[in-house]
Request: fold
Amino acid sequence: GAGHIGLRQAMIFMKYKDYNFVIFDRKPKVGGAAWWDQANSTSKLQTEYGVYHLNWDEDYPWPSRDWLLQHFDKKAHEFGIIPYIRFNTNVAEIEMSGSRENSEYKFKLEKTDGTTLEEPEDTFTASGVMLYPGNLSVARRETYKGEDEFGGIIAYGMFDEIDYNLLVGLNVAIIGHGAFAVENVRTCMEYGAGQLYLVCRRKNLSVPRFVSWLANQSLSPVSAVLFLNAMIPMYDLVGFDPWSYYAVQANASRTTCTIMQKVRFGIGDVYFLAISWGKLEVIVDPGCVKRLTPGALHCANGRRLEVGAILKLLGFVGNFDNDRLMRVKELTGFWVNDDPKRFLVAEPVSVIANNFGGTSFSPGAIIWSEMGMWFMHHPQDWYSKIMDMSMGLMPRHKTNGEDVPAYVVDARHGTQTIMIVTSLIPFIAERSSVEVGLKASRMWLLHPIEKFLDYCKEDWDYYCEKMRKEGRSGPEFPYTKEVAGKILQDYQKEHAASLAKQKAAAGG
Reply:
């Protein structure tokens, strides 16, 4: 794959003077399925650009989908990756032979642009394979009773399936409460939709932009306690208490907590603005949608919503084709069937943490790429260190046989894998310590706090003006420089305490 991680993997190989690789991708250009297929043309990056890009030279924190695709293409050319990519090419099958360090992988290739490959061009042999299939790539779909008589727009708010210009003036029901649902609130407001309803079985934590910034600029991770408390200025605007969400497990005094959420955070401020200005109502109903009638959606709790459009944002599930292609029986860490040269990574799902070092997967993409490269070059370390010295602690995952392929792992699996490999492979430990500082320096270089807050307020004011034109009123942006500065000071105290604790543990 020539998406974000595939390009990062190429950059890591080339950084260490390894040019003996080929990238296969079904698409005609770089960028990956997440941005080419799943995202709408209206989608924007939710985390900050400072912890997502392939290098740094621009500073707007939340670029659009099309801008990111141009960025990937530009950097792939600048870094000299393009000659190593075979575009419009699908790996249809992989045959494995040999054993341990001497394994071999034969690929059966097919074109995706209508052309054909003849022998011997339709096969390719390699000494290792790394699959980066994107995250969850298959949309979860539901059909509601009465869809044929609803008479309005019914669509999935992804894959560019809907022209949002059709929503002008229409009341819209958004089904779901994941990151894509939060994104669709902003898009509906951007395109002048009418009243918005977000119908969900339960509320997931959404993260204000400043809180995302706080985590991404950190050197030592932000405690979950501070992470939640930093959300309160925004949550107070809408009358929600982040500590009361299902995902939060805390003591009574709220001095310790763990966040365990089945989906990743939606990140953004417009969701909160829409609620506080009366544009959006969040309806929590465990039964969700009961049926549709002409011009109306009926919730299981009896609530009737008069809407002209329904956008389904029900999340994604994994693609079993990836398990079949790599012949996965069990994933050990990110390695298939205990094979150090069969590496398979999709960003772990869910949130399971009591501290947060970031909200973007890009720093993780670097460490994943370096781990994958290390065992390609040193497969013996897999057997002598990971298998023999990890004492069986390396996490393992199999498919549930229904809707979760083996390669789709949760956050605990991903974190435990990195911790074990870091503890046993000195190269990865060294690189991890360097990359924490790199992450923080990127954020402060691109998004210093005052400039970042100015961008946040500028976006907030833009949507407030749209609301005023609709005759609505509501609150101003809650993270003033004084409020944000106090939260940053609280983090700096945490960080200082963390350093002191580390020094004491080291005998210093």
The mean pLDDT is 92.
